[in-house]
Write a structure and sequence with these properties.
The protein is α+β, with helices and mostly antiparallel strands and 387 residues long. The chain contains 10 helices and 13 strands. The protein has a 4-stranded mixed beta sheet. Strands 6-3-2-11 form a 4-stranded mixed beta sheet. A 3-stranded antiparallel beta sheet has the order 7-12-13.
Length: 387
């Protein structure tokens, strides 16, 4: 195949996947602290295993009692849907080891003596947008997310009976001339009750594929290329079946591998950490650039150093490789966007408790909410980029 004709695959995991349980809990902690103090600092990691949850990390801000944290953690587990023998919101043993943020880190990122607030760490962050879907996301990851999100919604409503919280999806698409043309294979592995055989699981799951993927992409797929629980039964799942950790699904969280990732996880971090906030800003810029019609694809990289407020570099790549256009866009960004950590937080209103909802089904390609969640998905700067 030429470089413009290829197969490409992306995967998603549900909110009941053990790593996503951890992301949910860590982001709940961020929201809890920000709800009490919008300038709180949080770096929270979560580990889950059989009927156990362990929290560790650093915070600065309000004093929150362990009992309240534990109650909130149980609430997360209950909402996800775990009340199983191996992992239950009622009986799980929960330990928390959160402690005060390092003074050395605080010194580097706090603003003082008229110095602007610095980045909370060094690193590179990427943002991406393309015209493959209405959400301006790569099609394979977009469809993978939608399958699991619809399944979870119906499971929680009691419509999808016998299907349990832990599941994964994977969509492979054929690209011609750089554009997705058809789905060639789909894999869905989902936890289920012991009362369901695999034929029944397949019967329950197949409709969610058709609800999630436009019909034109499914016209030529062979039914043999739709794999439902290909390893057989999937009864033991979630943290009982596999240990979970915060931040292990960063490609699921972003663009499914269709664009680079800087390496830093998002969940569990307050927005002074540019791993999170600058990645959101880069997506915001890329989405508005593509929405303006300036390019069908846009990749942006931002680079930061701990304690330094401005980006060390801004890299932009468009699908047509037009360097003159790139330089015009860079100038627009320089003149209209403050990409310091403080500037990003103020621009996207990131000091609000808006993060728990981001912890599953992707941080990008979502609808902006009434409470400020997914503010980086707005396309309110389109006019600036019309060249």
């Amino acid at each position: 195949m030429s470089k413009n004709n290829f197969l490409f695959t992306s995967e998603s995991v549900s909110e009941g996947h053990p790593d996503k349980v951890c992301d949910r809990i860590s982001d709940m902690v961020v929201d809890l602290y920000l709800s009490r103090d919008q300038f709180a600092r949080v770096a929270c990691e979560t580990l889950t295993t059989t009927n156990k949850v362990i929290l560790a990390g650093e915070t600065r801000g309000p004093k929150i009692q362990k009992e309240e944290l534990i109650d909130k953690i149980r609430g997360c587990i209950k909402d996800i849907g775990y009340n199983q023998e191996g992992f239950s919101w009622k009986t799980a043993k929960i330990e928390t080891f959160l402690h005060e943020q390092s003074k050395d880190i605080a010194m580097g990122v706090d603003s003082k003596d008229n110095k602007d607030e610095g980045a909370g760490d060094q690193g590179i962050m990427f943002g991406y947008a393309c015209t493959e879907t209405v959400d301006l996301m790569p099609a394979p990851i977009d469809f993978s997310h939608k399958i699991l999100r619809l399944m979870a919604n119906d499971r929680k409503k009691g419509i999808l009976k016998g299907i349990e919280p832990d599941s994964k999806s994977q969509v492979t698409m054929k690209y011609k001339n750089g554009l997705p043309t058809e789905v060639t294979s789909i894999v869905i592995s989902t936890q289920h009750s012991k009362d369901l055989n695999q034929e029944k699981v397949r019967e329950l799951v197949i409709p969610y594929i058709k609800k999630s993927i436009p019909e034109r992409y499914l016209e030529n797929i062979d039914s043999k290329e739709i794999y439902i629980n290909p390893t057989g039964q999937f009864i033991i799942g979630g943290p009982d079946g596999d240990t979970g950790l915060t931040g292990r699904k960063i490609i699921v969280d972003t663009y499914g591998g269709a664009a680079p990732h800087g390496g830093g996880a998002f969940s569990g971090k307050d927005p002074t950490k540019v791993d999170r906030s600058a990645a959101y800003a880069a997506r915001y810029l890329a989405k508005n650039i593509v929405s303006s019609g300036a390019s069908n694809k846009c990749l942006i990289q931002l680079a930061y150093a701990i304690g330094v407020s401005k980006p060390l570099s801004i890299f932009i790549k468009l699908d047509d490789g037009d360097e003159i256009k790139v330089n015009k866009i860079k100038k627009i960004i320089d003149e209209n966007f403050d990409l310091s950590p403080r500037g990003i937080r103020e621009m996207l209103k990131l000091n609000n408790p808006i993060y728990e909802v981001t912890s599953s089904y992707g941080h990008f390609g979502r609808k902006p909410g009434n409470k400020g969640e997914f503010s980086w998905e707005k396309t309110d700067k389109v006019e600036l980029f019309k060249l």
